[in-house]
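I hope you will forgive my troubling you with a question about protein structure. I should value your view on which stretches of the chain appear to form regular backbone elements. Here, with my thanks, is the record as I have it:
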Amino acid sequence: MEKLNLPKDNTHIFRMTDDTGIFQHAKYSVPDPTHGYTTDDNARALIMAALLYEIEEDPRYLDLAYRYLQFLLHAWDGDWFRNFMNYQRSFLEERGSDDCFGRSIWSLGIVSSAAHLPSGLRKTAVHLLEEALAKCRKLRYIRGKAYTLLGLCKWDSPQAEKYIEFLASPLAEALAKNARGDWFWFEDELTYCNAVLPLALLEAGCVLNNKDWLSAGKKSLDFLLKTTFRNGVFWPVGCKGWFKKGGVPARFDQQPVEACETLIACLQAYELTGNLSYRAAAEDCLAWYAGKNSAGISLIDPETGGCRDGITTDGLNENQGAESLISWHIARSTWEKAKSKLRKEAKKVSV
């Protein structure tokens, strides 16, 4: 893996987080409390904090992990995760989306199996997983199921396995129903957070040793990569129109979360297959943040470590909200972990 010149200033993480959790939005690099907080963002921030603590061993990230997990504890009402919270710490809805539920389970699964984290954090994550597990049967939408699968696949628990089967089967069925000709996808359009769908099948296939899911996950990821790369440049489907079957992919706005989740999916595919093209695609996803993108401009603010909110028809969206910030640091940290693992494996071979 080649060395990328990437800024590592993390100031914006701490600026965006108060004693409640991470703010949802920012005006330029200034946190904007008028939009409050979301469980979506705090769940993903929990993943970010766990990764950064593992890599940098800075106790400040451990403090953040406690704060973000505390937010999830409060968001859980015994039946579902609430999502939107105002600045006065009042939730604005009785029930969050399927995506919110799934992202929460994803973060809890990661924390539950993170040996570098204190036992209290891990036990609290397991507590929430055990309370929420049966609620998985209420999920209706495939992205919520996919995010939930990612968490359950990380949770080392026999009781999770039957739910992995329960949630992965509808994804495989959706793919079989919609894949026709040169369109190998789960729906009749590509919209948001696309890479989570093949990633979920790859991880579920690993856990349950299901070769059909592994094959479907790989082929659907290949289709996504074919759609979102142009001459070696990552070009995610834009949110201003998406990509409907038979149409053309929307070029803008490009969202940082797409680069992050595609990178994770590519590294998982590389680990499973050893195919260097997946590793190269992951590196290109990381480079997208640093300027290897359609605008030719870095999204990372070197003064703060924040990430701009996307690429629009007019250039960069200069705001630096939570989703973009978190996506950037998860992508960078996941890449660093992959490099570290390769170095350790190389040392074993040389010995």
Q: What stands out?
A: The chain is about 55% helix and 10% strand. Strands lie at 23-27, 30-38, 84-85, 189-190, 229-230, 233-234, 243-244, 310-312, 315-317. The first strand starts at residue 23 and ends at 27. The CA atoms of residues 168 and 201 lie 6 Å apart.
